[in-house]
Amino acid sequence: MSVGFENRGGNRHNVKPQVDEDVLMKCFLAHSALLQNMHVYEHISKSQACNPKGLFKLLPLTKGLLELEPTGEVHSQCLRNAIFQVLLAEPSLNDTKWSGKVWVGMRCTRVGVLLYHMRRLVGTEMKTCAAKLSGSEFLQLQEAVGIMERKPSSDAPELLPLAKRGLEESDAEENQKRKLKKEISDVSLDSKGYPNCFATPQKACSENEEPLKEETALTKGLSNPSFLRRRPGQLTRSSSSQEKPQDLKKDLGFAVKKKPAHQKIRGKKKKQKAEATCLTKAGGRCMPIPLTKGSGKKESSLTKGASKGRKPWTKLLVTTTRKEPWRAYILGTHAKDKKGAKLIVETTFAAHPSYQKKLAEIKRRLEEEHLTKEEARELRGHLYQTW
Q1: Is residue 79 a contact partner of residue 115, using CB atoms and an 8 Å limit?
Q2: How is the beta sheet containing 342-348 ordered, strand by strand?
Q3: How many Å apart are CA 175 and CA 169, to the nearest integer?
Q4: Higher-confidence position of 157 and 294
Q5: Which of the listed ranges 172-181, 263-272, 333-342 does the model predict with the highest average pLDDT?
Q6: Distance between CA atoms of residues 154 and 172, nearest Å
Q7: Per-residue pLDDT at 46
């Protein structure tokens, strides 16, 4: 009894069939008592589980609707119009405080929930019905479910108009014919292996001058192909016969500046100084490598003693911690007002158990010889290694 399907809505829109309103009104009039009071399904929503007892009580109304539309889906507008005609025929059905329009909308929603739960019985919901109903009740419900049919998809070609169906078939055939050809074009290279697009354009020559001829492999002699021009499996000559690599900047015409001699000498000296003062791990602590003879660096104050012209330390403070991590450090300053003391050196228990004795020795040397901060740290490493 379905009138047809409407192609409206988005791609995921479920199209519901439209049923004749007069036929629906006759079905509702025959079961007006169930339409007025749907028992448990007065309070059940779509998201809740199916109620087998409630479905069995409303089975006569459900069978009448399934005979009209086996898919179990009816357009809501058709339901609303049919129920409104039933209310016109029997006004006593609306025994609630709500107006007729609101009552019709509520009945339409309840019928939609009933049909939705019936469609869910086609899946795994029949197991719960078999557990809740008796044998005769379950057979009657199973008979009603057997009437239901699956709704055809809205994308099926038999549901499309003839004109639209022909257009889709022709588009599919054209898409199969239209295929891009795979063409791989290589970049044109010159004799040196560089792309020709980077070459300098040739000047227009006069009538008396002869045009410049490009160098080819025949005029230049047989040379090894560049790595840009090689192909997989191509044999190459031995390394002795290959050309020496040329500077790219020279080939492209850029001026190459050479470093002055004094800059090269200065760079070598910096490198030697960095290698001489690099640190290595010795005994779990970082120790400086001693300078080799002739390196050009003066002897430290550890071997030669304090040199003249040193700034004396005007203030030296020793601080030790009272909780872990156990450590001690010296703060000092060269200022006359004895302000702005900064950290000079630090010793820890983790580095050596007698870290306080080492700090006292460092302080004595700072007061007597006025060591610098770097020399104090060097003395600390020396004490770690010798004591």
Answers
A1: no
A2: 315-320, 327-333, 342-348
A3: 10
A4: 157
A5: 333-342
A6: 19
A7: 92
Q: Which of 4, 20, 151, 145 lies closest to 73 in space, CA to CA? A: 151
Q: Which of 126, 147, 168 is the last residue of a domain?
A: 147
C-beta separation of 367 from 358 below 8 A: no
Indicate the length of the chain as a whole number: 387
Output the pTM of the full model: 0.40
Q: Which residue has 């609630």 as its token pair?
A: 96
Q: Is 293 exposed, middle or buried (0-12, 13-18, 19+ CB in 10 A)?
A: exposed
190: three-class secondary structure by DSSP: coil
- Specify the residue for token string 């300078």: 291
Rounded CA separation 17/382 (Å): 96
Q: What is the DSSP string of 276-329?
A: HT-EEEETTEEEEPPPPTTS-PPPPHHHH-PPTTPPPPSEEEEEE-SSSSPEEE
With a CB cutoff of 8 Å and minimum separation 6, the contacts of 2 are 17, 18, 19, 69
Domain extent for 47? 2-147
What is the number of structural domains in the chain? 2
Domain-ending residue, one of 113, 147, 181 = 147
CB 82 within 8 A of CB 26: no
Is there a domain that residue 163 lies in?
A: no
In-domain check, residue 300: no
